[in-house]
Each structure stands twice: as C-alpha cells, then as structure tokens.
Amino acid sequence: MRVPFIKMHGLGNDFVVLDARAQPLPLLTGQFARALADRRSGIGCDQLIVLEPSASADLKMRIFNPDGGEVGACGNATRAVGLLEGRPVRIETLAGELTAEPGSGGVAVDMGEPRLEWEQIPLAYAMDTLCLPVAWEVLESPVAVSMGNPHAVFFVPDCDAVELDRLGPEIEHDPLFPQRVNVNVATVVDPGHIRLRVWERGAGLTLACGTGACATAVAAMRRGLTGRVVTVTLPGGDLGISWGADNRVTMTGPATESFRGSFESADFGA
User: Fold this and answer.
1) How far apart are CA 116 and CA 94, in angstroms?
2) Rounded distance, CA 215 to CA 200, Å?
C-alpha cells in the first residue's frame, strides 16, 4: 500500500503527517511510528501525526513520539494541522478538543485550560505544584503544569548553560512522574519575554515545544514573574502565549510545510 505523507514543522519541531481520513492505514503501531521517525532509515521527525475522522470535532489528531509512545497534545503540530486545513478547525486529541485558526500572525491555537493540581499532572503523590520541593543538581523547585501532557518548569539564570541533554533524561524518568515528564528550563528576560529550552519526553532535545511554551508561560505567570501575555523564545523561534481571564491559554506562531512524498507501508511494518 502506497501511503502519501506531508513533512511539516513548527519552529523546527518537525512532523510527518499522515491523513487517514479517507483511506485508513492498514496498521498503526509504536513500531511503525518508530520506523518512520528514524532520521537515518525512515523519513525522520520529532512526532508522527495521524489525522483520522472524528465524531465530535472536524478531525481527530493522534500524536506519536519517536519512541513509539502515543501522547495527548502537541501545540506545534496543532498549528501545522491548522495550516493544512486553511480554516478555523476543531481538533479532537487524547487531551481534549483544541481549536486552530490561521491568521496573518501565524496560526492561533486555543490550548484549553492548564491543569494545576498534582493528580492532574500527574505526580506520584500530593505536593504544591507551584514549587515542588525537589532538585536535580542545579535544577530545583520546579513548577508542575499539564497542558494535556505533563511539564516540569525550572527557572534558571541562563537556560543555555544547563546541561539539559544530561539532566533531561534523568528527570523525565524520575518516579515522581508516573507518566514521565517534559523538562523545561526557562530564563525570564523581562515581564513580557521568556527564553526556553525543552527536553521532550520520548523525543529528547527539541527546537520548539508548543505545550512546553504554554506550560512555562503559565508557570511564570503563577509565580508573578511575567504579565499574562508573553513572548517565549525557543531555539527554533518565537511563540506568543496569553492566559486569558477565562482561564484558557492561547498560543500563536508559525507553521511550515516542507515537502510531500509517499512510501510503501510494508517497508515500515504496516
């Protein structure tokens, strides 16, 4: 079976997008996702995105990390889907329904309400999510936030100086986080600007993470470090994040289509 694909990225966070709405894939497994995501023997991506029909929204988006695990949310991929559709679109995900709306400033995504209680993150046991009493060397007292997936946010003097490639895996797999965790190291430049690097669970260091930018902005706002509208600068570029009076987080930024192609499903185990 020949399967068409679209290669896209949001600030360098790249995706292979498969549209299975008209023609379902013969087999969708973690092994298939890992094979496609491999940058040497596959197409290569940070996440595999599969679009399917939805009974409750305009479409359903499934998200697979390079390790084959399926996750609930991906902000950059949501913008990419909004760009593909070219219109306001409601998207069903494991984390709930998201909306994406293309505009002159990029694609704006309503990311929903942040989840701030320890059992919503989730953590292994009860503690104050605004200041977890834990530390990993220079990284200490993080804020825990879920944007449909779990995040730990550490505020540091210089996020570029942190050995995130070494500490990220250790924190990701700590027993405190039963579903593992995305690790964010952030530096507040001023009340309207944050610099951020992210170790993404199941993917590693990434040029951009939309849910990480949202979680970090919410963490900074909860601690009174910024206003309710901020620019978050990641290695791949800038995202605009706002946390409204309605408790909903909006993320705005670019998405780009790189190229299109096709592959034989049997070559990747499907």
Assistant:
1) 18
2) 13
Could you tell me the CATH number of the domain that includes residue 17?
3.10.310.10
Domain membership of residue 78 (yes or no) is yes
d(CA 172, CA 139): 13
Same domain, 152 and 196: yes
Q: What is the mean pLDDT of the chain?
A: 95
Give the separation between CA 100 and CA 250, rounded to whole angstroms: 10
Structure-block tokens of residue 46: 């940070």
What is the rounded CA–CA span in Å between residue 236 and residue 69? 24
- Is 127 part of a structural domain of the chain? no
Coil/strand/helix, residue 122: coil
Can you give the pTM of this predicted structure? 0.92
Q: Which domain holds residue 162?
A: 135-247
Residue 270, pLDDT > 70, answer no
Of these residues, 45, 159, 209, 214, which one is catalytic? 209
Number of domains making up the chain: 2
**Per annotation, catalytic residue among 45, 74, 159, 214:** 74
CA angle 165, 168, 173 (to 5 degrees): 135
Active-site annotation holds for 159: no
- Does residue 270 lie in a domain region? no
